[in-house]
Structures are given as C-alpha cells and as structure tokens.
Design a protein that fits this description.
This protein is α+β, with helices and mostly antiparallel strands. It is built from seven helices and 15 strands. Helix content is about 20%, strand content about 30%.
C-alpha cells in the first residue's frame, strides 16, 4: 500500500507560535503511522465543523448535569471529548469542548450545533448561562511534530491539534501556510479513532461504542446527566458489546456497508470512511466491531469478496 502523503508545506510554524498568533484554543489528540507521511506544520480547514458557544457564570455547573465529560476539568482549562445523550444512553450530539477564557466552545459537525442548542435550551432557564451558535470562529486541524501531548497519554507519538480561532485570524494565517485537504483531516481523525456523531447518526451509538471512555469523554465519578444510568450500568457490568475500530482500504466502500470475518460471520458496520487527497485510492475510516474482532485482520463484504478492510491499531488502549 502506498503511504498517505499530503502535499508538503514550505512554510512551517511551531504549534506554540501558531497558537500565539491565532490566539486559539486547542484539543491535542494523537497520531499514529500517518505521522511519518504528513508534512510538519500543515493546516487543515474544517469547514464541515462548527461551534456552539456556552457562556455565563454557570456554564460549567450547567453542563455538568447535561453531558458525559467532567466539566470540572474544563473549568481548569483542559479540552475534552463529550456527548449529550438521550434517555437510552445513545448519543444525540458529541463534540470537542474547548475552554476559551470566558466562554466554552463545543466543536461539532455542521448541523449539530443548532440541534444541540435546542436540546440544551430546554434546561437552561434557571441557570446563568447563554447559548448561541458561534459564526465568528473557524475550527481547523494542525499537524506538527513539536506539539505538546496531553490528552491521550501517548508520549511516544506526536500530536494532532484541533483548534478554533477567529475566522479573520485563520484566513490571514492560512494565506501564509500550505493548506491540507479537509478529507485528509477527517481521515487522520478516523485513523486515530476519533468520531463525532453527525446528523444522520443521532441516537444510534452508546458513547462506549465510540470509545469515549478510553479518551476521557466519559466521567464515572460525576453526578447524574441524561442517559447516565445506562452508561454507568454498561461500564460497571463490563458489557460493551461493540467497539469502534480503525481501518484502511484501497477500494471504495459503499454507504451503510456491513462486513464479515473470515468465518463468514457478520461482525462490523461502517461508521466513517474518507479518501485521502494525495492517494484517492487509499481511505481511512471506522467500523463498529464486536470486541473479539478488534485484532488487525481483513474484513470483507459478503457480496463482494474483493473489497477488504484492514484493521489498524488505535493509538489508545481500550480496557
């Protein structure tokens, strides 16, 4: 298989310098085998993402009773994965929560910010909190080998930084940087096992199925929130029946594909798949697997033995 090789940048900037220039706020995630083939300093615009802004003195205490992650950590300046659930513990919306001084930005796929806004507004009447879609900021992904690594505790792997900054600042900086394809950014997130639920995926997945418990996206030591009883019961009984896995393939993958193992047993369903821009015949994506199938091995479509997915290791451990 040919390696994933985005266009190399000629103008590189350290993440510290970029952050200072943009006055941006970031979540650090980890990279894996893509690291050796991705240009240092490459920026990826995330036009398919937007942000919900939460402000007001009660923003952390209000969200503590609404979402899966621990907002006490957000209050200390950490950035976290989180989700808002339905009563059955299924994800209605998931996001990357980034503290930005007096506000909290929830970065999530387009179409989900307005939806999450309506969900949260129902409970915000008695709290000093303001909710609004943030049209003035722009999410982006930045790759640099010098990035600090904090979130997923993989010190031997360089970091991928997902940030948000004022739109006019990003436009100015992007003019002086080589820009990567957004599809490449989505492929990198998929390769590293980070999936945020889109409009068409609402109410489908438990947060543990998307491995949020492995990447600090669920706190089991905080108070109640909608869907918490289901999530806690699954956790303490150790009964997560399916888990997210990452794959690579050199072939087109049909939407809503279901995959089979070498014993012709149904074992996986497609979550995401993104072609890389430099090598469009190479894709990275995610499937939902039964845990015994999580070892790297080929999977295939029942009706097409020629289409195979190769599972690849995730950068984080799943207990």
């Amino acid at each position: 298989m040919r390696p994933f090789m985005p266009i190399k940048t000629e103008v590189s900037m350290s993440w510290t310098a970029l952050s200072a220039t943009l006055n941006c706020h970031t979540l650090n995630t980890t990279a894996t085998d893509i690291e050796n083939n991705t240009a240092n300093g490459l920026l990826y615009p995330l036009a398919s993402f937007s942000a919900l802004e939460v402000s007001g003195p009660d923003r952390f205490s209000f969200l503590q009773g609404q979402i899966t992650c621990d907002t006490r950590r957000l209050e200390k300046g950490e950035s976290l994965i989180g989700a808002h659930l339905n009563l059955k513990g299924r994800i209605e919306a998931s996001f990357i929560a980034i503290p930005t001084g007096e506000t909290l930005q929830l970065v999530l796929p387009n179409g989900q910010a307005g939806y999450l806004l309506k969900l949260l507004q129902k409970y915000a009447l008695f709290s000093q909190v303001q909710l609004q879609e943030n049209q003035a900021s722009y999410p982006f992904l930045h790759w640099t080998e010098q990035s600090p690594h904090t979130s997923f505790n993989n010190p031997h792997i360089p970091a991928i930084n997902l940030g948000i900054a004022a739109r006019e600042q990003v436009t100015r900086i992007f003019a002086n940087q080589n820009i990567g394809s957004e599809n490449d950014a989505l492929a990198i997130l998929a390769r590293n096992g980070l999936v945020l639920v889109e409009q068409t995926q609402r109410d489908r997945y438990l947060p543990q199925e998307l491995n949020y418990d492995a990447i600090d996206g669920i706190s089991f030591n905080k108070g109640c929130y909608k869907g918490q009883e289901v999530v806690a019961r699954i956790h303490f009984k150790g009964k997560v029946k399916k888990r997210l896995a990452a794959f690579t393939t050199q072939q087109a993958v049909p939407d809503n594909a279901v995959f089979y193992n070498d014993k012709q047993q149904k074992c996986a369903e497609l979550i995401t798949c993104y072609q890389t821009s430099k090598n469009p015949d190479i894709s990275f994506g995610n499937v939902l697997l039964k845990p015994p199938e999580t070892e790297p091995k080929p999977l295939h479509l029942e009706q097409n033995d020629g289409l195979k997915l190769t599972l690849v290791s995730l950068p984080y451990a799943i207990n």
